[in-house]
Amino acid sequence: MVKEFGLDWTFVIGHLNYWLFIILMMTGLYIVVAKGNLVKKIVGLNIFQTAVFMLYISVGKVKGGTAPIFPVDMNIDPDVLYSNPLPHVLILTAIVVGVATTSLGLALAVRIREEYGTIEEDSIQKIDRDTCLQDANLHSEVASEPR
Amino acid sequence: MRHHLILRVVTKLLIGVIMLFALYVQFHGDYSPGGGFQAGVIMSVAFIIYSVVFSLADAQKVLPPWFVHKLMAVGLLLYALTGVYSMFAGYNYLDYDAINPEHPVSGQHNGIILIELGVGITVTAVMVTIFYAFASRTPPMDDEAW
Amino acid sequence: MLTALAVVRAQSLFATAMLSGAFSLLSALLFVTLDAVDVAFTEAAVGAGISTVLMLGTLALTARFERPATHSPVIPLFVVFVTGAALIYGTLDMPNFGDPNAPAQVHLAPDFIQNSPHEIDVPNIVTAILASYRGFDTLGEVAVVFTAGVGVLLLLSGLRHRRRRQGKEDS
Fold it and tell me: What residues contact A107, with CB distance under 8 A and at least 6 apart?
């Protein structure tokens, strides 16, 4: 049912959710790339991650389906449609693993702050460059001394 | 937060409910949404609330860090050893039919409860450990700072 | 989604932490509407609870405000737009939202839904798959959580012991 505009509305509405999640994902990616603050970067990664979770869950959704839990008495009505439980399992574990890895990242940020006194990326790079230059100067002085 | 009286009273009331809810989620996970991962997180929230509202030292008296570190490993081992047991009973690794060979379905039930318990213990212990690790470094801060 | 955009703008890291908690809660609501109650439950407990607390703990240990950006945002924006366009191009081949005949729905899922009542006999299919059919996977995930816990311990408590030992040697 392609119209003369070349726009198929069922197609657009059927894919709108994917596009929204991709925009969300890109928001996260933008934070990761553009922001210098390490904590902010971790928040960005979290947003990216959640967008991926949403993408997976929305793939598992069946129109007219319900949550994949049988009645407690196990009288299963064969007419009831259930959503795909497999993505749910994957994402469920991924969320908990995600928070564990996030905390690992935050712990790294804390340690960096203790060593460098800052969590801004460019200041860390500046401190690194300065120490490297000092090292290089020291080495060249030692090398140029007559034996 | 010594002077926040209402907060402390409400927290005392809530902690019991939170832990009860965590246990419900843990063992009722076969029938309703829930399971080891969620229960672990909720259970650790109870301890985290306690140490936020009262003090870290109090919380560590209830649940000492060395004990939590052991629990982290115990949960994972419980999970893995369930698998080893089924292997020694002549089934595949993590095949819970082995727990009750005459009645495989009940074996499956017991197996699921066992490994969910393992998951729950590990997740609780890891979350509490992470919180302890962060909180024990925090410089003492007055409430006005925020 | 608006909260995510607000995160981009917010200079105060405290506001960022709070906004990310709100973001998790909203995404949990979204998961409920997408029939994933287990996932929503986890997201609400983890995202709005634990990670906000951890974020605040980190902020107390580090800085409270972000320095304004020094780079121009043109290159990151370009990267983001190109990646987004590529991904959107990739979705054009995907089946419509909620299509019962999509490839993801016809292969494994009906198998699980039909067989788990008499093989496992647990009402919650998600639990049945998590613990039984994909037991290996879950074991791996638990191992990852365990490893992350050990990693945080190593990063955050190793130094203290070393300092204490140094203090003893000095005195």
Answer: B130, B133, B134, C151, C152, C155, C156
With tokens 């613990």, the residue in question is C131
The interface predicted TM-score (ipTM) is: 0.81
Within 8 A of B48 by CB-CB distance, chain A residues are none
Domain range enclosing A59: 9-65+78-144
- Asked whether the beta carbons of residue C35 and residue A13 sit closer than 8 angstroms, the reply is no
Domain locations along chain C: 1-66, 131-171
Question: Which CATH number is A35's domain given?
Answer: 1.10.287.3510
- Of A90, B33, A70, B22, which Cα lies nearest the Cα of C37? B33
CB of B133 within 8 Å of any CB in chain A?
A: yes
The answer to whether the CB atoms of C131 and B111 lie below 8 A apart is yes
Q: What does residue C15 show for φ and ψ, rounded to 5 degrees? A: -60, -40
Residue-wise pLDDT tens digits, B4-31: 788 888 888 889 899 998 898 888 877 7
Q: Which of C145, C149, C155 sits opposite A108 (nearest CB)?
A: C155
Minimum-distance CB partner of A15 among C17, C37, C91: C91
- Bridge partner list, C124: A69
User: A32 CB contacts (<8 Å, ≥6 apart)?
Assistant: A41, A44, A45, A48
- 3-state DSSP call for residue C123? coil
Q: Which residues in chain B are contacts of C153 at CB distance < 8 A?
A: 69, 129, 133
Indicate the residue type of B67. F
Residue A74 CA: distances (Å) to CA of A44, A69, B112, C116, C122: 43, 10, 18, 11, 8
Q: How far is C171 from chain A (nearest CA, A)?
A: 24
- Full residue range of the structural domain in which residue B82 is found: 5-145
Specify the DSSP class assigned to residue C62: S
Which subunits have 3 or more CB–CB pairs within 8 Å of chain A? B, C
Model pTM score? 0.81
Nearest CA in chain B to A73: B31
pLDDT tens readout for residues A39-54: 888 888 888 888 888 8
Q: Do C100 and A81 touch (CB under 8 A)?
A: yes
DSSP-derived 3-state class of residue A69? strand
